[in-house]
Write a structure and sequence with these properties.
Largest sheet: 7 strands, mixed
Mean pLDDT: 96
Distance between the termini: 40 Å
Order of helices and strands: EEEEEEEEEEE
Structural class: mainly beta
Strand content: over 45%
Number of strands: 11
Shape: globular
Length: about 110
């Protein structure tokens, strides 16, 4: 049974930074692509960033240059470093494994 557990969300002022973590268990973590999605109130869930098993990354246009996805295969963990946060980044952020597994989500609120 694959489990994904996110952490690191919270309240931050515009321009601030947060680092989200997603710890995976129950699978051979290193061979699967991982992604971060987010869902704002009243909006559809959207893809934020993806990292392949080999470390290739892709980002949504809205976060490119501000967010960085990375992975530590030794720790079975994927990260999302978020810098220069904006109010429109407010959402629940979800970790996703390519076979369709989801974490429970972590709330990020950007507000002054």
């Amino acid at each position: 049974q694959v489990q994904l557990v996110e952490s690191g969300g919270g309240l931050v002022q515009p321009g601030g930074s947060l680092r989200l973590s997603c710890a995976a268990s129950g699978s051979i973590f290193s061979i699967y692509a991982m992604s971060w999605y987010r869902q704002a109130p009243g909006k559809q869930r959207e893809l934020v960033a993806t990292i392949s098993s080999g470390g290739t990354t892709n980002y949504a246009a809205s976060v490119k240059g501000r967010f960085t996805i990375s992975r530590d295969n030794a720790k079975n963990t994927v990260y999302l470093q978020m810098n220069n946060l904006k109010p429109e980044d407010t959402a629940v952020y979800y970790c996703h494994e390519i076979r369709g597994y989801w974490g429970q989500g972590t709330q990020v609120t950007v507000s002054s």
